[in-house]
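Weekly modeling sync, notes
Attendees: AB, CL, MP (scribe)

Item 1: holo prediction request
CL wants a bound-state model with NAP before deciding which constructs to order. AB pointed out that an apo prediction alone won't tell us much about the pocket. Agreed to run with the ligand included and paste results into these notes for async review.

Input as submitted:
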Amino acid sequence: MEKVVIIGTGCAGLTAALYTARANLTPLVLTGKQPGGLLTTTSIVENFPGFPEGVDGYELVTRMQKQAERFGARVQFAMLDSADLSKRPFTLVVDGEKVETQTLIIATGAGHRHLGLESEHKLENKGVTYCATCDGALPMFRNQPLVVVGGGDSACEEALYLTRFASVVYLIHRRDTLRASKIMSDRALAHPKIKPIWDSAVTEVLDVKQDKVTGVRVKNLKTNAETVVDCAGVFVAIGHVPATDVFKGALAMDDAGYLIRKDVANTDIPGVFVAGDCSDRVYRQAITAAGMGCAAAIEAERFLEAMSQ
Ligand code: NAP
């Protein structure tokens, strides 16, 4: 029987792992399909305190994992298939195996939102991607025009990163102002290689028949005029969806799928705690996820202590 199982190894899960490990609870930490979470797909993280020069996202989570393991956290590359939270101990099915646990910390994070176009789906990994740092340096994108879709911090970050490889980066956004923070917007719009295309939506990724990306069909949402923008790659950066499907019916969630918390970390079910992007539609920062992971760990520790008295 486990005392604590943590689902997710992003900033939230690994901080919860560090705190519960230091409390001698030897947490079992399951990675899910993306070990390290979304932060591993960013390049330089400039707003995590303690790193005045910035830190590589992958390096940051790798260090967090090592720190948690040093105190006894057991990180396992495994997927949660299902969770029965109707009674304690909770019963999880992990890669087909039953695991019983007294407490559960859910830090499953979020995945990339898709445009929802059939052509986008068909050309995924054939020029359509959701991660510039993972794919931007591929030969197929070098010295080519590229498209980034979105207007948030992620879109600006992706566009800026791609300027290293692309001949030009078209930033296609559905409004005429960016949602991104001022520092990121200013940087992106000042870059000579980044060309914004405002008030526009991508309606089709071309060319499914050729089985590769050759351009995008773009509709101006004010005039309805359609144009084709030639490009070799489409980087979709339009936000995220919480990775909470496995808890549907078991835990309360809002209409977008974010798990509902009673306060910082508690859910309606005593012994089940949440942390990070899977339950945060407001801040969604590495540092807030880490803070929530800390809170969830302290709550789990208190819960176990109260149970044993
Ligand atoms: P976001 O802030 O939610 O922005 C998503 C963008 O995509 C918005 O501009 C939105 O348009 C657009 N969008 C959403 N759905 C769309 C659709 N179906 N079609 C076309 N466009 C669509 O997401 P994010 O940029 O991934 O950022 C998430 C969080 O991470 C934020 O809190 C951000 O600050 C943080 N972050 C920070 C950094 C950094 O500080 N360096 C880097 C990356 C992310 P509208 O503007 O019209 O809604």
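Recorded for review: The radius of gyration is 21 Å.
Action items: CL to compare against the apo run; MP to circulate these notes.
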